[in-house]
Design goal:
CATH architecture of the largest domain: 3-Layer(aba) Sandwich
Keywords: Carbohydrate metabolism, NADP
CATH class of the largest domain: Alpha Beta
InterPro entries: Epimerase_deHydtase, NAD(P)-bd_dom_sf
Largest sheet: 7 strands, parallel
CATH topology of the largest domain: Rossmann fold
Order of helices and strands: EHEEEEHEHHEHEEHEEHEEHEHHH
Domain NAD-dependent epimerase/dehydratase: 3-211
Number of strands: 14
Strand order of the largest sheet: 5-4-1-6-7-8-12
Protein name: Epimerase
Radius of gyration: 19 Å
Low-confidence stretches: none
Distance between the termini: 29 Å
Organism: Marinomonas profundimaris
CATH superfamily of the largest domain: NAD(P)-binding Rossmann-like Domain
Structural class: alpha/beta
Length: 322
């Protein structure tokens, strides 16, 4: 099996690549080749696996259609994890960059899948990392029928990807699965352009006994999952049988809904210290509007095919910093 990961140097991409290298399979299929793409890499992963597995690592511009066609056309692909994206804040600041990666590169990958299917009759599985940013303004309950009203270009770009993956899957050119990821915890400190980084920072800082100024009120509610939970769902997303997907190719992943006060309590419980004294709340209206008004969530489509959340908030916090 040949597996491709775009955005392989990112927080989720690195974890996914390392998981595949450690396990050597996706579902019940053995991985023989792993291709990793990103703009740049912090370190080489080639040779880091003891398995009989060929690893290629390419620093590239995903907006370069011809390079993608030439490079990815050398070997047929079985599973593609399309994680590369320009996130919310960065996409707002640089519209052209956001569209070139979030939309154009997605279309280029879909066209490569179409060419492969038509030329050799082998349809690849494409797991697309969409986002809960597609919802934007939310009603009192979010479920599989909730209208999409994104408040940022990033969310709009993800909707375009979902729609095109559904259409290419309908036409038999790709076996697509779009997974709407929630916040993923806990990201290392870095300038990624993600406005939700404080959700990771609060766990890391409080766990170390540091003070923290929270940009949302104690009662503000959000959704999030641990990195290990997201990796488990991405692996399941590629392994689930196409016959079980029925009419939809888009799944809002099950996740936990909690207030910032509940998060602080969970951090205190897991790390066995009084962290409430370390937290002050200074709500930023824009941040709270984007990330602090999340209602309860129902995910029947995802539940039916076996996607899962962390279980409870203590487990999420425990798994978030490993």
């Amino acid at each position: 099996m040949h597996v491709l990961i775009t955005g392989a140097n990112g927080f989720v991409g690195q974890a996914l690549a390392n998981y595949i290298l450690s396990q050597g399979c996706v579902g019940e299929s053995k991985v023989s080749r792993l291709t990793l793409l990103d703009r740049q890499f912090d370190k080489a992963v080639v040779g880091s696996s003891s398995l009989d597995l060929v690893v290629e690592q390419h620093s590239c511009d995903l907006a370069d259609d011809q390079w993608l066609k030439d490079t990815l056309g050398r070997f047929s692909m079985d599973v593609i994890y399309h994680l590369a994206s320009i996130p919310g804040g960065m996409a707002e600041k640089n519209d052209q960059l956001g569209r070139s990666v979030n939309i154009d590169a997605t279309m280029a990958l879909l066209d490569i899948c179409k060419t492969q299917t038509e030329s050799i009759g082998h349809k690849p599985v494409l797991v697309f990392a969409s986002s809960i940013a597609v919802f934007g303004i939310m009603p009192d309950l979010v479920n599989d029928d909730t209208p999409l009203k994104p408040q940022m270009s990033y969310g709009a770009h993800k909707i375009v990807g979902e729609v095109m993956i559904n259409d290419f899957s309908r036409r038999g050119w790709v076996d697509g699965r779009s997974l709407r990821l929630p916040g993923v915890l806990a990201r290392p400190p870095a300038e990624t352009g993600q406005l939700s980084a404080f959700l990771s920072d609060i766990i890391r800082e409080l766990s170390l006994g540091h003070t923290f100024v929270c940009p949302m009120s104690a009662q503000a509610k959000t959704w999030a999952s641990s990195l290990p939970n997201i990796i488990e769902n991405l692996m399941h997303g590629a392994a689930v049988e196409e016959s079980k997907l029925k009419a939809t190719r888009t799944f809002t992943l099950p996740t936990l809904c909690f207030s910032m006060a509940e998060m602080v309590d969970a951090i205190g419980t897991v790390y066995q210290q009084n962290v409430k004294e370390l937290v002050s709340y200074e709500p930023n209206p824009m941040i709270e509007n984007l990330f602090g008004r999340f209602p309860p969530l129902e995910t029947p489509f995802a539940d039916e095919v076996g996607f899962k959340h962390d279980g409870d908030l203590n487990k999420l916090v425990e798994r978030a910093v490993l």
